[in-house]
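Morning - flavin-adenine dinucleotide inputs below, output right after.
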Amino acid sequence: MARTTDVIIIGGGIHGSSLAFHLAESGVKVIVLEKEVIASGATGRSSGLVRMHYALETESRLAWDSFQYFRDWAERVGGDCGFTRTGFMQFVSPEYEAHLKANVAMHKNIGIPTFLIDADDVKTLEPAFSTEGIKFAAYEPESGYADPYATTAGFLDAARKMGATLVQDCEVTAVEVKAGKISGVKTSQGDYAAPVVVNCAGPWAARIGDMVGLALPINTWQHDTMMVQRPKTLKRPHLTVIDDINEMYFRPETGGLTLVGLEDNNPLGENPDGQTDHAKPGFVERAIERICRRIPVMEAASLQSAHGGYDGISPDQRAILGQAGPEGFYLQCGFSGTGFKIGPAVGKCMAELILDGEAKTVDIDPFRFQRFEEGDLLEGEHSYGDIWH
Ligand SMILES: Cc1cc2nc3c(=O)[nH]c(=O)nc-3n(C[C@H](O)[C@H](O)[C@H](O)COP(=O)(O)OP(=O)(O)OC[C@H]3O[C@@H](n4cnc5c(N)ncnc54)[C@H](O)[C@@H]3O)c2cc1C
């Protein structure tokens, strides 16, 4: 006999857990099926940056709504998501100066705390930084980073207290469709019946799409990060930074560490089951060279660790959200290397869409699957080009 529920969520990462929380909050019976353990995919490898600076307004709105969960986590969800306010700066090449100014204005209009600052301000905020290539920067004093595992576990703990079920070590092997409608799933632990199935399978999402005959334009994106121990001269945690000039981002971590990731050389199309314990050969050398360009005293830093991770990436490097394929089949995937920070609001919007037929918190229609066949790909009005290249 299949166990019956209202909604089946495939995947126990940030997105499956956020959706479970919001559905359970609305009194819906929900089961999360996770083939390994929670946060064992992209989420557990995430750098956890929490910022609102995007070139696409809808993404900034999702990030801003999500930020308020991270900031007020104890009251809204319960426990501690590890949110650490560091302040955030976005550096862009001089050719994008006008776009930076337009985006800061757009963010201010949304209500996001953000300022346009110049190279002297950057030097005042971070005396150890070189300001090479910087004329202006965006500054978000409230932003920082959170702990992706704690965030996911927090959502799921709260969801379970409201009646949701989590089944780990449970791989979905087939999605069942009867007369064009979702009827349930087959798994390594038996069958589950439900009229709604949500694909929150991260870099494995295309495989779940295949189970209902839906070809999702989601590729696998591989990304390495490293942690270095900062030198004694740089003990104080620095701001979190996206430095497009040097094609990298970095943030502090507890214990005097700094995390670094690079925007270039993130290979596509690898098997998402590939190893993530080690970074690719050459990554550490490139990342050290980049961080020393921006923070010269990092020459005296020492390597602490490096590893990789996979996410699902779409052709316009943006999420795919909404209903597609058989009735009752929903997509919450394709987060393209930037999906952690918008997880809270996306889960809320998807719950609204599933329950009320429309997302009210933020309009997520631009992220619909159908945009690819309509040729309506997403691009910020004042874009800095693709994040990953
Ligand atoms: C190294 C790295 C750094 C990143 N840094 C940032 C950052 O700083 N800020 C940011 O916003 N984003 C960042 N991202 C992106 C972000 O982590 C992802 O977009 C986000 O975590 C995706 O969450 P998810 O829940 O969709 O997928 P996942 O976390 O991958 O979860 C999917 C889950 O589905 C399960 N699953 C798959 N197939 C099945 C099946 N058949 N049956 C059952 N379960 C299944 C998997 O085991 C997995 O646990 C980063 C990503 C990586 C890889």
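Note: The chain is about 30% helix and 25% strand.

O.
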